[in-house]
User: What shape does this take?
Amino acid sequence: MGNAMPKKLRGWDSDERYLETEFDTMDTDGDGLLSTGEFTKLLLALGFGGDEEKTEMLLKEMNKEREEKISQDEYVRAIKSNEEIWVKTSKLRVIFGNFDDTNEGKVPKTKIKRRLRMMGFDVDDDMSKSIDEIDTDKDGYVSYAEFLTKHLKSKGFVSQADNTAGALATEES
Assistant: This one.
């Protein structure tokens, strides 16, 4: 299965919450804008595969007024309107969406573990603990924001302290 997502989306993705969550999670200072560096890190973490120069050019194409920053609306519009970017950055959306049957943007931890077992993974104590750690608010669910934050941290793109503002903005949405 590739990274491609259907053109016509349904459920959680149809109202752009995945994209808004990506933006909010990377907006570590909570100013409602992504800098060139934050934008570059987000695209790279999502699998875009371009280098910093390519993402800077992309940012300038999207945002003629503020070449150094991009707003959430500009981010959502840009991702949705560029099929190449959409496809290259959809890997995490596809993975999470495969667990999120109800399109709520969150998945019970028990369901994740059950599905992983059904897929042939050995959900041992270490894996179970890792899944439990992703649920940072300890509500029994893994949200897309928590899933994405874990990925961004594993790539070294955000630290625990950096992500506080973005996580709060996402939860308030």
Residues 1-11, 163-173 have pLDDT under 50 and may be disordered. The first strand starts at residue 33 and ends at 35.
